Amino acid sequence: MNLGEKLKLRRKKSGFTQEQVAQEMNITRQTLSHWEVGKNYPDIDSIISLSQIYNLSLDELLLGKIHFKGESVMSKKLSVEEIKTWITTHYPEAINVKELTGGLASQTYLFEQGKQHFIFQVGNLKGFEKEKFIDHELAKTLPVRHVVEIHETDDKLAYSIYEFIEGDKLFDLNSQQLLDIVPAVLHTLETLESIEVFNDKEGYGYFDGTGNASYPTWIDFIKAVYNNDIYDWSSLEEKGLDSDVVKNAIQELKTHISCIKTNKKNIVHGDVGSYNLLAKNDQITGIIDWSLALYGDHLYDKANLLFWNEEKLQPLIKEVKNKYISSNETKEVIYCYMLRIGLEEIYNTVILNEVGYDIEWVANRLNEIVKNRG
Q1: Sorted alphabetically, which InterPro entries does this protein's record hold (predicted)?
Q2: Could you say which of 136, 164, 247, 372 would form a disulfide bridge with 117 (CB–CB 3.0 to 4.6 Å)?
């Protein structure tokens, strides 16, 4: 993938049109178009401006390691004035409306009314419903956001209002703060894995807003990624990805899947990382965005941390390896989970055209995981 293709991908994943970016940079749309098709390339100042507009670091913009995930690209970016209108519909005295860093599939704002602070987020209705379920079930056990209300407009735009949680995302912490927060994150993971899944809820794998999941067993969920009736990989190459990446990972998963003997039913966050954990004073104050939550083996969350291997979280990842990869058996289980996570990401991004990490990075990471095991 050349630079122009990457710039085009970053813009689309951020939900901007060429006209919007050109206007923000005070350049012509044709100039931006020439960059994206590779006729010529932006200078360093323009690259910095693009990284700021797309809310990405230079590494993320140029190298493709984008630490955002979501279920679908927002079809429409709402203006601040539109957001303010929606907020004041419910909170007429709202003040100090301020945009926060959001995901690829959402817009997130902070506002005040009286002495209280709230979060207003536009995004995915199913994700909001899952977060409301988690709030109802786990608020006494984990620092989850309280969902005040959820709405959907006539044109199917969904938004949710949450009580504000004090704290910074781990991504925004400095190196020393990231070291200091490791014990608190490990404690949070321990708390998460200790929770017994609600007896009245069915299934394994991704659950819905009612708390029910569709797979009869945990192993069925893991195997589903190579079940042609559920995951149809047939259009992979015509969509531009080398199918060997997927074939090799699937073969590895089939070869080693017998190591997964557990049928545990833990709550799995599904996307634990630097953007979904909030911290203050060396404590975890919030676990947010439960849209990818599922029922299954708690090691799946640890495998998720290891798969994405965020540079920011290396001190945490080191401790997770020391604590949880305690035997060859556990190592093999986590290896299988990492394969499944990579395959899922490729399927959602390439086959289903959902928004996700840069697929070039994901494919290379999956190859690296297979290679390093051998």
Answers
A1: Aminoglycoside_PTrfase, Cro/C1-type_HTH, Kinase-like_dom_sf, Lambda_DNA-bd_dom_sf
A2: 164
Contact predicate 331/321, CB 8 Å: no
Report domain extents, the chain.
3-63, 80-163, 168-373
Q: How far is CA 243 from CA 1, 94, 202, in A?
A: 16, 52, 35
H helical segments located in the chain: 3-14, 18-25, 29-37, 44-53, 58-63, 80-90, 125-138, 175-194, 218-223, 243-256, 299-308, 314-324, 328-346, 359-373
| Residue 199 CB neighbours (<10 A) | 6
Per-residue pLDDT of the chain (374 residues; tens, 9 = 90+): 567 877 887 787 777 899 999 999 999 999 999 998 888 889 888 988 998 898 776 766 765 544 444 334 444 567 888 899 999 999 999 999 998 865 556 789 999 999 999 999 998 899 999 999 999 999 999 999 999 999 998 888 899 999 999 999 998 899 999 999 999 999 999 999 998 887 788 899 999 999 999 999 999 999 999 999 999 999 888 877 778 999 999 999 999 999 999 888 999 999 999 989 999 999 999 999 999 999 999 999 999 999 999 888 999 999 999 999 989 999 999 999 999 999 999 999 888 887 777 787 888 899 999 998 84
Question: What CATH architecture does domain 168-373 belong to?
Answer: Alpha-Beta Complex (3.90)
Cβ atoms 221, 263 nearer than 8 A: no
Fold of 80-163: Phosphorylase Kinase; domain 1 (3.30.200)
Positive or negative torsion for Cα 36, 38, 41, 47: positive
Contact 44, 326 (CB under 8 A): no
Q: Which two tokens stand for residue 249?
A: 């990972």
Contact (CB, 8 A) for 273 and 178: no
Are 339 and 245 in contact by the 8 Å Cβ rule? The answer is no
